[in-house]
Specification:
Strand content: 25-35%
Shape: globular
CATH class: Alpha Beta
CATH superfamily: Gcn5-related N-acetyltransferase (GNAT)
Radius of gyration: 15 Å
CATH topology: Aminopeptidase
Largest sheet: 8 strands, mixed
Strand order of the largest sheet: 1-2-3-4-5-6-8-7
Number of strands: 8
Structural class: alpha+beta
Number of domains: 1
CATH architecture: 3-Layer(aba) Sandwich
Length: about 180
């Protein structure tokens, strides 16, 4: 199945995405705000890919492989809504990682808005969170433009800026879009 937004094509991750997953998650620039750093080898990306495939089966949804409609043969990122653990609880997490060439084009906001709509309308989620490092101003703006509101600050990695947890409920989203 393929989902669309104005300029993006989105589909679930498949095993053939492994090299693109490593290309993007292995790039130190894409991990500037991630305390765990880039994938050091393709095996790390393969383990992540397998976890995502298992998540689709277990949860019935997960994040996507992202393409520009104008160039549907090149992967530019990965993201969407997926289940993860944060601050001691399971969350429906909105997240994304784009190759640097895709930055600054509004794709993160476009993806986020489409993923939120997917989560509420197609999956039936009741709430979605976004987690971002306190010093990652661009991603904070994406979450805010997408309708998420600041929920709390979490000091989750010693010696680094805190994570900020943003949140939106189905009710808030429906109210804003009616």
């Amino acid at each position: 199945m393929v989902w669309e937004s104005e300029r993006l094509l989105l589909r679930y991750i498949i095993r053939e995405d492994l090299n693109d997953l490593f290309r993007i998650y292995g790039d130190p620039e894409t991990h500037r705000f991630n305390p765990y750093g880039p994938h050091l080898n393709i095996e790390s990306s393969k383990e992540m890919l397998e976890r995502k495939l298992i998540s689709y089966e277990k949860e019935g949804f997960g994040d996507w492989t992202i393409f520009e409609k104008s160039n549907p043969n090149r992967v530019i990122g990965f993201g969407g809504v997926f289940v993860s653990q944060f601050d001691g609880r399971e969350t429906n997490n909105l997240g994304y990682r784009f190759e640097p060439d895709a930055w600054g084009k509004g794709y993160a906001t476009e993806l986020s808005e489409r993923a939120i709509r997917f989560g509420f309308n197609e999956v039936g989620l009741e709430d979605i969170v976004g987690v971002v490092r306190e010093n990652h101003i661009a991603s904070r703006r994406v979450l805010e433009k997408s309708g998420l509101k600041f929920l709390k600050k979490v000091a989750d990695v010693e010696g680094l800026p805190a994570s900020l947890m943003y949140h939106i409920t189905r009710n808030d989203w429906v109210t804003a879009h009616c």
